[in-house]
Amino acid sequence: MRHEQRMVITDAVLSIVIIIVVLQLWLFTATMEQYLRGDRAIIVPAALASICCFGLICGLLFVYRMKRNP
Amino acid sequence: MKLNLTNEKAEWREQFPVNWTDDEYRSRRDFTRLLGLTSLAFVVGQLWIIARNLTRRAKEKTSEFAIARVEEVPIGGIKMFQYPSQNDPCVLVRLAQNDWVAFEQKCTHLSCPVIPQPQQHRFFCPCHEGVFDIATGEPISGPPRRPLVRVAVTTRSGQIYATGVEQGEV
Q: Which of B3, B13, B57, B99 has its CA 20 to 30 A from that of B91?
């Protein structure tokens, strides 16, 4: 793979990961706010969503690594 | 003179061996990995909230506690007590003949003790001038955004009992 292509893929993966992490940050603050307000129904779905986001990032990093070292 | 930047064996390369493009590539890759760890930290945070919720539920399942005799607290009067543990100061307020409310004495802003002011129908937090409604515990003004933690009370045979902490039951 050419260096420029590698850089494009790295930038793409990095952009997606940043979006997901920002989403997780929002999810965490919203969950904490709701929990402290007393809304407990939200905490388990929010945790599952956060785990899904983490899984997505792991998947992206794994696929990216496989592409880098075929 | 024009430099040949792609020639790795050029003379300038010996004096400046850093490959910027490779360096940039590696730093972005490492940053992406760091973000992966940040994501894991958020997951741990979410699980921590669940764990806190479970311990909070256990705290709510507390036994009854006799606060005072009914005649000990006049209408508009207050009575301090500790519930569910000795480290949890609470305030009982008699609003009317048969209307009792009790709250934890901890401000929901920064945990300062709130002062009951039944004449003004409020709890006042002197730290940052937070004000809560005395009947509902809802914040009225100041920095607090969450209501006071309510303690469930019941009267039986002329005795007032605390029966549980209604944290979050807003």
A: B57
CA distances from B166 to A53, B45, B135, B147, B169 (A): 33, 24, 14, 11, 5
Give residue-wise pLDDT tens across range A49-59: 999 999 999 99
Q: Give pLDDT tens digits for B105-148.
A: 999 888 899 999 999 999 999 999 999 999 999 999 999 988 99
**Taking CB atoms and an 8 Å limit, are B33 and A61 in contact across chains?**
yes
Alpha-carbon gap: A63 to the closest alpha carbon of chain B (Å)? 13
- Tell me the chain B residues in contact with residue A18 when contact means C-beta distances shorter than 8 Å: 35
Q: What is the reported pTM?
A: 0.61
Residue recorded with tokens 């003379």: B11
Q: Are residues A40 and B53, on separate chains, in Cβ contact within 8 Å?
A: yes
Question: Which residue among B39, B40, B169 places its CB closest to the CB of A20?
Answer: B39
